[in-house]
User: What shape does this take?
Amino acid sequence: MLAGTLIAAILLSLLRLSPVWAEPAALIVHGSPAEKRIALTFDDGPSPYTQEICSLLCRYQAKATFFVLGCHALQYPRIIRGLLKHGHEVENHSFSHKRFPQVDKAAWQQELERTEAELDCLGSPDRNLFRPPYSNYNQRFLNYLGHLHERLVLWSVDSGDWRGLDDVAIAANVLKGVHNGAIIIFHDGDELGRRDHKNTVDALRIVLPALKSRGYEMVTVSELLHIPNTKGSVPSEPEHAHP
Ligand SMILES: [Zn+2]
Assistant: This one.
């Protein structure tokens, strides 16, 4: 009896000592369908196209979330500071756009931490969102993010700009798919920094006034989800996770 109690006590203490790897990260696809608010998101930048996007967003009083690559943040620090100065959100999209399920945990950590350190240096406030490159992730990676109190953010509307569509087709995808609480994905850069993103910029000239005239408020992902801007804090409202 005493031995049984002792074993139970040891097991309990081991459980308490083990890291909280089982805590799942919230998987975010959209915000509340009850609110006429949407979040425009831009991946793989910053790039020389980002400043023009920032100017267009300002013109239509829109705030956005930029999921940047650490390697590009290193290259364009002034653009990151400019985004922050204009009230946009800058979040982590890894350092060099690796496919996360195909690399080991040490590589995940390095990819996340290098970008976090870079964004810290550039004055970005506490961040708690992550978008995985190629939207690739697995349960083990989700658990890892949960341990860091990070949320994994996907999207509910794909602009399709990564497929080489023209501005009119990109705008049509967005305006056809938009809904209350939508998270919309665009790209202001690419992993190699070589592609032309003019069609994305031109599509925004169509999309932004149209969304504004439909009465949508364009906010950051954290604002859409009512997440206070503090790492590890609890959101004020329930989130809408992927099924
Ligand atoms: Zn990407």
Notes: DSSP finds nine helices and ten strands in the chain.
